[in-house]
Amino acid sequence: MEGKSSESETLERERQYCELCGKMENLMKCGGCRSSFYCSKEHQKRDWKKHKQVCKKADKLQADPAKPRATEPDAVQSSTSEHSKQCSTSESNSAAVTSAGESERDFIKSATGSDTPSDAKSDTSKPNGQTRSSPQKLALDYIVPCMNKHGICVVDNFLGDEIGSSILEDVRGLYLTGGFTDGQLVSQRSDSSKDIRGDKITWVEGKEPGCERIAFLMSRMDDLIRHCNGKLDNYKINGRTKAMVACYPGNGTGYVRHVDNPNGDGRCVTCIYYLNKDWDAKEHGGLLRIFPEGTAQFADIEPKFDRLLFFWSDRRNPHEVQLAYVTRYAITVWYFDADERARAKEKYLTSAGEKGVKVELNRPSEPS
After folding, report:
1. pLDDT of 257-300, one tens digit each?
2. Per the record, which residues fall in region Disordered (predicted)?
């Protein structure tokens, strides 16, 4: 009974976010219905036209039917939920979303990582998928709703410190072999790519010597996507690219604003795993800035160690990598939508398509 109660409380906390902006930190409860939350009085006022119908209906269900209803929203009251206490309010633990031309700062729920259903907050050495939440639960209860609502989703402490560190060793070993080449553009028309992107990359299938841990990471990514399949937008995911292992050398290099899949080449979900310990964006730079379509806001994602990021690959998410001043590692995999990929193959074969030849989703396996 105690376990069920704890799980129920966890699920309840995950439902608490600002009705207007999705922020999950420092929430206050609506004084009327006491079931909706806002991050500020200003956001409650802005949402009142939409919320008042629900609030009035909910108010009738309260224990005190004689409580009067105001024509304006009741003042929001500070939430005493454990969720508000557990969520970090520091900028380093959330992806800030800034509205252009406004001083107000909002937060995209899916880009915080703080609402991931796990107990990894108290022990960062333990991964999300191996504590309270199975990969299936993580996929269905967190990744799917975040992606479908916002098109961006962050999972922190994905594999844990030990496995993450072993993957970093593999990547550093690869880089030291000198097998990385300059990152190329999907459509390479000139020699200007260095002015657009400054990363060094190599493609990994997972069977190469010294890449066993990278292969394990790819299998874990596949496992999550397999549980999400059929529930992410209208996509039917049937494969992915090889893993692109990328290094920004730390000499003030980045990648200008771009879209991963602007022309319908079949890629629907971008999945990035970061390997940068003790990253400080103020000092090191290297933020991934995403500009979600249809909004004046942008999301800044720090490339933190053991962080997994998902976002739609198409024109809904233009993004850039800001200049990095220390070495920055990441591993990216793109997942294919079956129908779009088939149409793309009928039309053309791009250089990205050649490198990103479809492979079947691997079954998860333990690293050696």
Report:
1. 999 999 899 999 999 999 999 999 999 999 999 999 988 889 99
2. 40-134
DSSP per position, 197-249: B--EEEEE-S-STT-HHHHHHHHHHHHHHHHHTT-STT--EEEEPPEEEEEE-
Kindly indicate whether the domain formed by 135-185+195-351 is annotated with CATH number 2.60.120.620.
Answer: yes
User: CB neighbours (10 Å) of residue 74?
Assistant: 17
3-class DSSP state for residue 352?
A: helix
What phi and psi, each to the nearest 5 degrees, are found at residue 210? 80, 5
Q: How far apart are CA 241 and CA 246, in angstroms?
A: 14
Cα–Cα distance, 302 to 280 (Å, whole number): 8
Residue 100 contacts residue 137 (beta carbons within 8 Å): no
**pLDDT tens for each residue of 7-42:** 545 445 444 566 776 666 677 888 887 777 787 888
- Cα(309)–Cα(273) distance, rounded to whole angstroms? 6
Nearest in space to 115 (alpha carbons), one of 239, 253, 14, 211: 14
CA 27-31-37 angle, 5° bins: 30
Distance CA 134, CA 116 (A): 12
Residue 231 neighbours by CB distance under 10 Å: 15
Rg (CA), the chain: 22
Q: Can you tell me the distance from the alpha carbon of 312 to that of 318, in angstroms, rounded to the nearest whole number?
A: 10
Residue found under tokens 């294919």: 336
Per-domain residue ranges for the chain?
18-58, 135-185+195-351
Higher-pLDDT residue of 164, 177: 164
Count how many residues are written for the chain. 368
pLDDT number for residue 120: 36
pLDDT at 47 over 70: yes
Place of tokens 């010597």: 209
